[in-house]
Design a protein that fits this description.
about 200 residues; mainly beta; Chitinase A, domain 3; 3-stranded antiparallel β-sheet; 9 strands; about 25% strand
C-alpha cells in the first residue's frame, strides 16, 4: 500500500477520542481525511511560547517560485499548491525550524489562542513522500492552534494572513515515538508548507 495515500483517519470522533497525535482534518464535516491536520496528542511538557519563533532563513518574496532553506526546496506560485523537495543531505531534525517562504500582509497576526484556516502540504523525512495535502482535498482546514501538534502550535505563531511558511518539525514535536503507521514512522521529522488564509 502506498504510504502517501494509506493513512486516513476514519472520523473526527476517532481523532477526538485519542488517535490525535497528528490525525484527522477539521474541515467542517464529520468525515476526516487520513493523517490530516495535526491534532494535538499528549499535552506538551511546557506551554508553547507566546512569541513568534526566530526564522532559520531569510524570508522569500511572493513573486519568486522557488525557495530554499536547510536542504528543503519549496516551489510553486503564490496561492497555488506548493511542492516540497528534500535534498539527499536532509536528515532528522532535533529542533523546530521555521522560515517564511513569503510573508503575509494581513491582520491579525497568529497567536496561541487563534483559530486559523490554512492550506498545507506535509512530507515525511523518511518516506520523502507527501502524506497529506489540503490542496489535494480541495478544501482548506480550520482548527484552533492550541488543538494541534506542538510543532504547529509553536511554528505558526506570528504568521500573517496571506503568508506561506515552511515548518521542519522533529518527531518529538509531532507524532513522537508512536508515529502514525503506515504513513509516518516513529519519531519521524515532518516538513510542512502552510499557507495562512485567515
Amino acid at each position: 500500500m502506498n504510504r502517501g495515500t494509506a493513512a486516513p483517519v476514519r472520523t473526527l470522533a476517532l481523532v477526538v477520542a485519542g488517535l490525535a497525535l497528528f490525525a484527522g482534518c477539521w474541515t467542517g464535516s464529520e468525515e476526516a481525511s487520513s493523517a490530516s491536520t495535526p491534532q494535538a496528542s499528549a499535552p506538551a511538557a511546557t506551554a508553547p511560547p507566546a512569541v513568534a519563533p526566530v526564522p532559520v532563513c531569510p524570508a522569500g518574496a511572493a513573486t519568486e517560485s522557488t525557495y530554499k532553506c536547510q536542504d528543503v526546496t519549496v516551489t510553486g506560485a503564490k496561492d497555488e499548491e506548493p511542492t516540497i523537495a528534500l535534498s539527499d543531505d536532509f536528515g532528522p531534525a532535533s529542533e523546530l525550524a521555521v522560515a517564511d517562504v513569503y510573508e503575509g500582509t494581513g491582520e491579525p497576526v497568529v497567536s496561541t489562542a487563534a483559530v486559523v484556516t490554512v492550506n498545507y502540504v506535509g512530507m515525511g523525512e523518511q518516506s520523502r513522500e507527501v502524506f497529506d495535502s489540503s490542496w489535494q482535498r480541495g478544501q482548506p482546514a480550520t482548527f484552533p492552534l492550541d488543538g494541534v501538534i506542538q510543532g504547529w502550535t509553536e511554528g505558526l505563531i506570528g504568521m500573517k494572513p496571506g503568508g506561506r511558511r515552511l515548518l521542519i518539525i522533529p518527531g518529538s514535536m509531532a507524532y513522537r515515538e508512536a508515529g502514525s503507521p503506515p504513513a509516518i514512522g516513529p519519531d519521524e521529522t515532518l516538513v510542512f508548507v502552510v499557507d495562512l488564509i485567515q
